[in-house]
UniProtKB/TrEMBL annotation, chains A, B, C, D:
This is Aminotransferase class I/II-fold pyridoxal phosphate-dependent enzyme. Its cofactor is pyridoxal 5'-phosphate. Belongs to the threonine aldolase family. InterPro entries: ArAA_b-elim_lyase/Thr_aldolase, PyrdxlP-dep_Trfase, PyrdxlP-dep_Trfase_major, PyrdxlP-dep_Trfase_small. The keyword tRNA processing does not apply. Residues 30-294 form the Aromatic amino acid beta-eliminating lyase/threonine aldolase domain. Gene3D superfamilies: Aspartate Aminotransferase, domain 1, Type I PLP-dependent aspartate aminotransferase-like (Major domain).
């Protein structure tokens, strides 16, 4: 298998594995009461610049989204998301399973525009029947989005200000956070994010970990008894070390950030490989997911040699292809891809 | 830390870690569509003697219990459990979170007696108001139980027959399955269990894995679209390999069974260490959890040197202590414990 | 208060009240086991031409929708609805509270077009990630719709055929059923509906009852233990007679149908009153809800004399007004409205 | 049918019906925004001595219990109830359907003893694993209880004080409130109850109404947007008048209290009828439900002439019978029952 289909094809970065090996036989208390969990949380708090932050480790993204969203909403609240949001599309109705509606705004680029958010909120409270409707009770954004795009600091700040005005929480899904932070296209740092939003998660699964995501409530603002909420939904590892030790490795000496840069460097090379061969972008993405418009016959041939995602139909004769790089992508992989393109396009 | 408090203090057995390392950089499809997931499932099916079985990998026990139980019940059903059952006590109301009541039967030893089950079912349908009550819609047993006890083949068969008569599913929680299978006190093999019950899980977290449990529907009887049910509740790993590769190691060359035996051998030695020193059992457990009655002043002193669980109060001056061995317990550990006992009891 | 704002301003039709009075002191068993419940169900079965039908009485529409939809879906299913559907807009997220997503199709007229439904289903199963998404597990239509429009027999049949092809249930919300059946704009009879759809309800609250809706599973196809499902959600009246006796009155000598006709006659006169005075329709509705485009200044003045709903903004200077007639609307009411229009428009 | 089986055999008290008739054709706004709803709430606030109280009208008891309990608990909370509590036994798992466990205390007489409550709370926080367990997050009591017994003012106050100490709400189910208030066996008035508990409901269905219960949050302490919570669960009548007008009648000129007294007078006569004929009590109940021990052969014969509930088996040859009086029971009914006893016992 040789594939750019997604950014979770490989296992863990070698430093992550080594840390797991190194700590393996140490006897530790369960359920996140071990010292590695504390140390990993400390490193994350430091990287986020939020000494009062609370950090919780989850196994995966859907679980994280569903539990966080349910825990920050009132029972009558829905969560506002771009139509393209992961919680609206690819979590099998996890949010609804917890009793909440996803209130969508149309989106071309995966982002919510501040003015869209304001309009939704103004319209809701203008409606005479608002008490019979789902309350817009929180906002979900992803950064990078599902389309690889990024918020700027001013965009995210504008959204956060509207949330504050309406007293609703802002939640940022950072499944691919590392790939967003490394991009030049956004001026948002991890510390900015921790200042601006109410809760976010730093994705491990897609950025060098075997599994795991780190939820941060940056101002000590976790819902009461959040541990028990996690437990109730089956989100707590008996061996809390499983995820904590991995984040310990990722946040030691800035590894997490370097993995992001590595993936973006490779994305840049991948772009060139395509552009040099006359392909065109579907959208210009500043992160590790690149979208191209490719003629269908060629798509078929390519698929014999390399994995990628067909994101959709472009027109009758072309498709939109998604190629992802990751922390594990090497220059050799890019060269091999270039060779395949040359071979196939001949 | 030196502790017999539980059986999940260490990381993973070395063979499990090695398999993770060995397969780490292989590119694999996500969400359980990789070949290791298939191979692990094949080995499990073979070990269970159920060629038509369906195998699903989960991250942990609570998640497994909650999702399996909800998926096999009708909306108006409750699940029957011993009062001491894990789902009734230590899962923070996970079953209730999915909308179902736990219908309890009193239990001294952690087990449900067949006659208790029959009485509950007869009484329910005898009650004129049954349609206003929670239906007894399934049975939950654990093997070993939370008290370390075991069902015999004839006991489990008797329960299964009642379930069949009432057309309700029987689910077996095998969080510590390996420690049950290795015990002489039960004549139940893994194949027996697969024949007798409707669904069960083979616990990895407590028997050599970093994390993970393998659910088996032995007769191809999984609820429709069980994958999507898992996904909706956030139970699916993007990197399905995380758990699958571990079970691949555990079910290669009977490692899982050997780990169980290792723990039981150590439990036997641990017993002797206590008995030789004049301690007495609270209950005689045939598995890896051993319960002793210890005088409170001694408990306090012991706690300075070794970890264990205080399971409860025995009388005004004595407590019930639980000591667990595991796959990771060594003869050296037992010797050290003996030394501590000698030291402290002087 | 003088109002055309909705069709539930008055209490019950006199025959309904009389039946309640007449039967009031008779001692009856509770929870729907009384003979009036049986008789009302018999009359409804007869009116629907479905001798094997099962009839259940609920207190109100939202409760009915939410319980029926949840009971006919699998846990991973969503319900397909027009964007304008009541379940999507004005039930405070009741469907999501039961764990299901509302999958919407855009709609100008409140209806789902058969081709829209087919496209949604085809697209779903064409998507490679379908197992990660909410399944299109059932269809919700309302007749009349929230915009007063009606399905024709061939439209509803086409939808039902697609449902059958995909093995998903079709549910029809008949909150205003009486006003749809009386309209010339649809060729659907109650018996047609009972033949075509899988479950529907006959609305009482808006058509002459104090409260109550009658759910019909026309082919004995109610989910198992539907009574207990209702009970669990608090939908069962201790005095089952409360709703049953009202439906007994409504389905004696065709009263329900006559009430529908009365409302539509009055709607016709109301239309004329507006058209004769130069107002124009927003949409031409064939039922008891009429929509007009009215200049904002005039809206303000009108509101001093008569109640109506402002359904939305038409343009900067005009609004869309909704006027409802009902079983209780009299010719005198229409005359009074005409007088107000003359007075105000001067 | 001639029956003492329950207290909801008849329709509504004549004054209630009259009020419905009298107000029937008045045009009123929907969803509880009408003046009768306000007036009924005012009368209830006055009767309860709580000028800041918030009053909400529901259709029935299970619905009321389920919605109130869910709305006052945190997601990780269970509700403490006597084992015999209605929410634990006869609501088909409604509380669990909303995601909460019922935490039971054993009870012979249907009541929770203050010391039982304290022990449960102390034990919970003493348990090292408390964060893995269902929190005792609220207390449910019924008054009268399901066994017809009553709390005294000092008992209820003691419970309330423990609740305040642990900062958990106390909820009182008053399905049969009228029959409790009229009893000499309790010194609790409606005003006392409103002072002591955090939320309660005044039952209408069993005390003279066709349907309906009035929930009171006596200190303006309703959960935020409680209306929308009700709406979401299908608890809101479009015609809010349906229940409000009935309570208007019940709380005009103390009718509600008189109906309670009438039922208790009849219960007193019923007791005498049994005692004079040599029957013995199962328990001595101070309210409208009376329990007798009757020989099985006689039970069979009695059942041919009069309705009653067989509450359980007393011994091999005797059963426990429950006879209820209600607001509708007349002296003539008691005489007729006496005649039947004489006839049958011969």
């Amino acid at each position: 298998m040789f594939s750019f289909e997604c950014d979770y094809h490989e296992g863990a970065h070698q430093s992550v594995l080594l840390k797991l090996i190194e700590t393996n036989m140490e006897q530790l208390p369960g359920y996140g009461e071990d010292h590695y969990t504390r140390e990993a949380a400390d490193l994350i708090r430091e990287a986020c610049g939020c000494p009062d932050g609370q950090v919780y480790f989850f196994a995966g993204g859907t679980q994280t989204n569903v539990t966080v969203i349910d825990s920050i909403l009132c029972p009558y609240d829905g969560i506002i998301s771009a139509e393209t949001g992961h919680v609206n599309c690819h979590e099998a109705g996890g949010v609804e399973y917890t009793g909440h509606k996803v209130l969508t705004v149309p989106s071309e680029d995966g982002k919510i525009a501040p003015e869209q958010l304001r309009k939704l909120l103004v319209d809701f409270y203008d409606d005479e029947a608002w008490e019979h409707m789902v309350f817009p009770g929180g906002v979900y954004v992803s950064h990078p989005t599902e389309l690889g795009t990024l918020y700027t600091r001013s965009e995210l700040t504008a959204i956060a200000e509207i949330c504050r005005e309406y007293k609703i929480p802002l939640y940022l899904d950072g499944a691919r956070m590392g790939y967003g932070l490394a991009s030049d296209a956004s001026d948002l740092t991890l510390k900015d994010i921790a200042k601006i939003v109410d809760v976010f998660y730093i994705g491990g699964t897609k950025v060098g970990a075997l599994c795991g995501e780190a939820v941060v409530f940056p101002r000590g603002n976790a819902p009461e008894h959040f541990f028990t909420i996690m437990k109730q939904r089956g989100n707590v590892f008996a061996k809390g070390r499983v995820v904590a030790v991995q984040f310990l490795a990722l946040f030691t000496d800035g590894l997490y950030f370097r993995l992001g840069e590595q993936a973006l460097d490779m994305a840049e090379e991948l772009k060139q490989v395509f552009l040099e061969r006359g392909f065109r972008f579907y959208v210009e993405s500043p992160t590790n997911m690149q979208f191209f418009v490719v003629e269908n016959e060629l798509v078929r041939k390519l698929h014999e040699h390399v994995g990628f995602e067909v994101s959709g139909k472009y027109d009758e004769t072309h498709s939109i292809l998604r190629f992802c790089t990751s922390w594990a992508t090497t220059r050799e992989d890019i060269r091999r891809l270039a060779g395949i393109l040359d071979e196939v396009a001949r």
